[in-house]
Amino acid sequence: MDYIIRLVQIHETFRKPEIQALAVLANINVEFLVYSEYSPYCIVRLRDEAAARALAGRSILSQGFYELWGSGTNYEELHQNIRRRTSSKWPEYSTCSFKFDVDTYQNKRSEAEQHKLIEPFHYLGFNGPVKMRNADQKFCIFEDYEFGAKQPKQVHMGRWVAGTDRDAVYHYSLKQRKYISTTSMDSELALVTANLTLAGPGKVFYDPFVGTGSFPIACSHFGAMSLGSDIDGRSVRGKKNRNIVTNFQQYGMLDWYLDGFISDLTHSPLRSTRLFDGIICDPPYGVREGLKTLGSRDGGGKKIVFIDGEAAHLHDEYIPPKRPYSFDAMLDDILNFAAISLVDEGRLSLWMPTANDEEVELGIPMHPCLEVVSVCVQAFNKCEWTRKLK
């Protein structure tokens, strides 16, 4: 069966990989019949309505899934296509309450214009009452316009099947979160990244650059157990009774948070074995945070300093010495760690800039034990700077 997905027109390079990842997670075969990064309307082929609901239930970058009843380059073609595809289905909905909506992209329709578009569908033979709220069946007309055009280039009509998980973006908004920092990943991209990494119940996810915990929260929203570490102990400990734990408490998910600890990837206390179903991280790029690893600049050891008879490094406020760390070395360490620590079919989601400080484009890091599944790019509106998720 064919379905039309009403996508959000943002983070365009993430939308298709998210649907593909959700299909892998639900063991569903999805075939993309129509897809463009320049349109919010995507047509896919799925085995049945249950498959559509399974994908919709976790999707962040879509607004709804609809059973496709017809498509055309104009309304004459649309009506012909509807008659050919769905005439056998009309009696099933003849007595149901129903409503019609009109969804336009890059244009607007007045209420009178919408009524004029809906009236010609009388041949469907729907005799039930029209209900604007809580209707048994909801149908939608989709109009896709070129920018500035007066007539749509494509029109579709579909029957609503399922809503999506997009409300989670607002539920986990940083504006209401108790513990954040300037580098906290926004809720939308954190949730999408968790989907791309296949977070789910019965899985364990790890963020080695945990910061204030945006990724563990997103992973646990989908039912995964999560933990994280950070070289900066201040991030893990938090401040003024606010920390990662209080964030999990805020969302009622504390049972899904295993723990956080202070460590960097080159000095990890974790066993070198396959522990994680997913590793998800947004490492420092050297722009705001700077790149550091534990150790002294000269590579030598330091004498133990005692404060009131206790070794200084045992104090909570102790900040260990750090030395510079190259971005390339960090990428290699992340990939090596993932190759050692991921279970079979586990995934690593790694955010990185598309270019370095000298504006030299950075290639996709590779590892012989890992396969690139998708590359998504986030562009920033107010500067000529982008980053990508691998």
Could you explain how this protein is built, in words?
By secondary structure, the protein is an alpha/beta fold. Helices cover 24% and strands 27% of the residues. The protein contains 10 helices and 18 strands. It has helices at residues 12-25, 49-56, 75-86, 111-118, 167-171, 187-196, 214-221, 233-237, 244-250, 327-341, and strands spanning 2-7, 31-34, 41-45, 62-72, 98-105, 137-144, 154-163, 204-207, 225-230, 257-262, 276-281, 292-294, 306-307, 310-311, 322-324, 342-353, 376-379, 386-389. The strands form 4 sheets. A 7-stranded mixed beta sheet has the order 2-3-1-4-7-6-5. It has a 7-stranded mixed beta sheet with strand order 10-9-8-11-16-18-17. Strands 12-15 form a two-stranded antiparallel ribbon. A hairpin with a 6-residue loop joins strand 2 (31-34) and strand 3 (41-45). The longest helix is centred in the C-terminal third of the chain and has 15 residues, at 327-341. It is elongated, with a radius of gyration of 25 Å.
Q: How many beta-strand runs? A: 18
Question: How many strands, which pairing sense, and closed or not: the largest β-sheet?
Answer: 7 strands, mixed
Helix segment tally: 10
Main sheet: which strands, in order across? 2-3-1-4-7-6-5
Global Rg: 25 Å
Rounded to the nearest angstrom, the distance between the terminal CA atoms is: 31 Å
Helix-and-strand structural type: alpha/beta
Q: What fraction, in percent, of the residue positions are helical?
A: 10-25%
Provide the residue-averaged pLDDT: 90
Q: Shape from CA axes?
A: elongated
Task: Note poorly predicted spans.
Answer: none
Order of helices and strands: EHEEHEHEHEEHHEHEHHEEEEEEHEEE
Assess the beta-strand content as a share of residues: 25-35%
